[in-house]
Design goal:
By secondary structure, the chain is mainly alpha-helical. The chain is built from five helices and two strands; from the N terminus they run ααααββα. It folds into two domains: 69 residues, Helix Hairpins (Orthogonal Bundle), CATH 1.10.287; 46 residues. β1 and β2 form a beta hairpin. The longest helix is centred in the C-terminal third of the chain and has 26 residues.
């Protein structure tokens, strides 16, 4: 089996960075569509897995492209940002663990006071 990074580099070399970044957007859209289908009860996890694999492979290419474009600075920035996001979410989880279980407020007064619910968007 070929090494994933070698195949990713070949894709970039053959098709070009811009086309591969546009392909990433297309693959993300297809994955999002499949996830929505699952949430609506009309999708299947095999399709989600297939689209997620496409996205993961395209993200690898995007990282490679952006690492070159930033003269080796992108991956360090990505690492710092990921650590920040994980630490921030961990802090949120510590608070939310006391308030929610399986996306439902443990105390209904909490949901009314905070306006919090399962559909809230947390980045």
């Amino acid at each position: 089996m070929a090494e994933i990074t070698d195949v990713a580099r070949d894709c970039i070399d053959i098709h070009g960075a811009q086309k591969q970044l546009l392909q990433l957007i297309k693959e993300m859209n297809e994955m999002i569509t499949e996830i929505f289908d699952v949430l609506d009860g009309k999708g299947n996890l095999d399709k989600v897995a297939s689209e997620m694999a496409d996205v993961k492979f395209m993200l690898l290419q995007a990282e490679m492209i952006l690492e070159v474009a930033t003269a080796g600075k992108f991956n360090k920035t990505l690492e710092v940002e990921l650590k920040y996001k994980v630490d921030r979410q961990n802090s949120r989880n510590e608070v939310d663990r006391k308030l929610f279980k399986n996306g439902v407020a443990i105390d209904q007064n909490v949901q009314m006071q905070t306006g919090a619910g399962i559909n809230d968007n947390q980045n």
